[in-house]
Amino acid sequence: MSSHTMLIAHISDLHVLVPGDLAYNVVNTNPLVESAIAHMANLSPEIVVITGDLVHNAQIAEYQRLKSILSQLTMPVYLLPGNHDNRDLIRQVFTEHTYLPRTGCLQYTVEGHPLRLIMLDTNVPGKGHGELDSDRIDWLDQQLSHHPHQPTLLFMHHPPFNTGIDLMDSIGLISHQALAAVVKKYDCIERIGCGHTHRPIQTRWAGTLAYTVPSPVHQVSLDLSTPSQASTFTMEPPAYQIHLWNSDRGLVSHLQYVNAYEGPYPFSNWFAHQYLQPPFFAAAFFRSRLFRSRFFPQPLFSQPLLSSHCSLQGFGDRP
């Protein structure tokens, strides 16, 4: 039986703005998002998942700008809301995204692929924290029960675990015990992919691997001691997550940086520089069997002709 493969890109926390605005009076997010989406378009995954904070101020003009930026992607794009988002405006602008429920929470299942994708809506309108009420939890349980052994990726905005970063934990997912109880029932959940934290974080949680992705714009500072009111952000490199699924080998995940860096350089250049330079090459040749067999067909000494400590100087004066 031939193996099936699938490449999925997961990006989060785009914080798209009306042109001319700055996030937190510092970050011009739109060019950074445009670069990330162009990078992703060049990579050509089968599916792109964006887990919330699509825009910064939940304005219709921001969603329209986001729609324009995403137009360069030819593959299916699946959206989730974050704490900066407005569900109704997402529906209003992204009318061609027919998978979005027409009312209520924006959670849904994507099937028809080697991996099933289940999208959970953790948005609490007007609040920074996330929540999954009993209706959303029951819906998840029902979706998983339809095909309990189908390999599945679960996506949501707020991570279900504490990160150690006080700011993000203070606006994290509350009452996640009910979610853990459902997740533990099914061994088909390969990953729980989240955003919100603007950092790459991962942990074992409820019997699977849960993680968060960096943002393509700014990152929350890795500070495990500062209280939330004094938290900061940095302009660390933008990145997103890549999942490579193979039905024979399972799921392998990579962190993909967006910026252009020096390279790529072939490793063959390094090998040539290290091992084919004249001093090394000459010493290697003199130690070789070819050199000994051609010039000294009979052994001259009981010990090897040359060692790593032997000097070639004065060689002809030896008895």
Explain the overall architecture:
The chain is α/β, with parallel strands linked by helices. The chain has 2 domains: 5-257, 4-Layer Sandwich (Purple Acid Phosphatase, chain A, domain 2); 269-317, no CATH class. The protein is built from 9 helices and 15 strands. The strands form 4 sheets. It has a 6-stranded mixed sheet with strand order 4-5-7-9-11-10, with no helix packed on it. Helix 4 packs parallel to helix 6 (177-183). The longest helix has 15 residues, at 29-43.
Briefly characterize the structure.
By secondary structure, the chain is of the alpha/beta class. The protein folds into two domains: 5-257, Metallo-dependent phosphatases (Purple Acid Phosphatase, chain A, domain 2), CATH 3.60.21; 269-317, no CATH class.
Q: What would the average pLDDT be, to the nearest integer?
A: 89
CATH level-four homologous superfamily name of the largest domain: Metallo-dependent phosphatases
Ranges with pLDDT <50 over ≥5 residues? 300-319
Outline, from the CA principal axes? globular
Please give the CATH architecture of the largest domain. Answer: 4-Layer Sandwich
The number of distinct β-strands equals 15
Number of helices: 9
Query: What is the CATH class of the largest domain?
Result: Alpha Beta
Number of domains: 2
Counting helices, strands and paired strands, the structural category is alpha/beta
Kindly provide the radius of gyration, computed on alpha-carbon positions and rounded to a whole number of angstroms.
28 Å
Strand content: 15-25%
Order of helices and strands: EHEHEHEEEHEHEHEEEEEEEHHH
Spatial gap, N to C terminus = 69 Å
Q: Main β-sheet, in a few words?
A: 6 strands, mixed
Residues in helix, %? 25-40%
